[in-house]
Write a structure and sequence with these properties.
single chain; 216 residues; Jelly Rolls; 2 domains; four-stranded antiparallel β-sheet; 38% helix
Length: 216
């Protein structure tokens, strides 16, 4: 008579260390990995936040994503990428679970609950990328900024919505939405005067900011 194997606990797996996975801690502005480094691991953010940036051949830098607790990054190694395509930098004191490629592949193939969660995450992020492109092509700077702030606050997320954002500079926000710092400053002041946000180093988001995104 065989013993039934205990159910796989996704949360426990992502919250703990073990064979093929370890915890890394990074201070604000510390590099997690750099563009061009060997791609060997998938990372999962337990606490804090990470900024992904890409630098082109002429040295121009662009922010491609701001990630928070519950987000994966570095998954390109699973698709055969040999080097990191972006630089990951902590935007606050950050704790990440570093999962070796071989261990990630083992769990994805052997644990359906985990693979379902990971696939759902990747599909949601692909939808986000498409929405970001549409946002850049068709929406005003004001709408793009409002939408970015709401996304950073994880508006609509059931797991961990947050009202107060970790410190994100106006330069970073400008890079994310494709505008200048002065334009970001103008609309941040406008949002504050209208009561949509409270802005004093950290940013407190009110749900009323959604009206900017929905307004035609």
């Amino acid at each position: 008579m065989s013993l039934r194997r205990p159910a796989f606990d996704v949360k426990s797996f992502l919250d703990s260390t073990g064979l093929g996975r370890k915890v890394g801690k990074f201070q604000r502005k510390e590099t997690v990995f750099a563009q061009g480094d060997s791609a060997k691991s998938v990372m999962y953010i337990q606490e804090g936040g990470v900024k992904l940036t890409v630098v082109n051949e002429s040295g121009k830098e662009a922010v491609v994503a701001i990630l928070g607790p519950g987000d994966f990054f570095g998954e390109g190694c699973l698709a055969g990428q040999l080097i990191c395509m972006a630089t990951a930098t902590a935007i606050a004191p950050t704790t990440v679970l570093v999962i070796e490629k071989s261990e990630m592949n083992r769990v994805l193939h052997g644990e359906h609950e985990f693979s379902d969660r990971f696939i759902a995450y990747m599909l949601a992020r692909n939808i986000r990328v498409e929405e970001d492109l549409i946002d850049q092509l068709f929406n005003s700077t004001e709408k793009r900024l409002a939408r970015t702030l709401l996304l950073l606050a994880r508006y609509g997320a059931q797991d961990n919505p947050q009202k107060v954002l970790a410190k994100v500079s106006q330069e970073t926000l400008a890079e994310m939405i494709g505008t200048t710092r002065s334009r970001v400053n103008f609309f941040m002041n406008k949002f504050r005067k209208l009561g949509f946000i409270k802005y004093n180093g950290e940013i407190k988001i009110n749900n009323s900011l959604l009206s900017v995104v929905l307004h035609d």
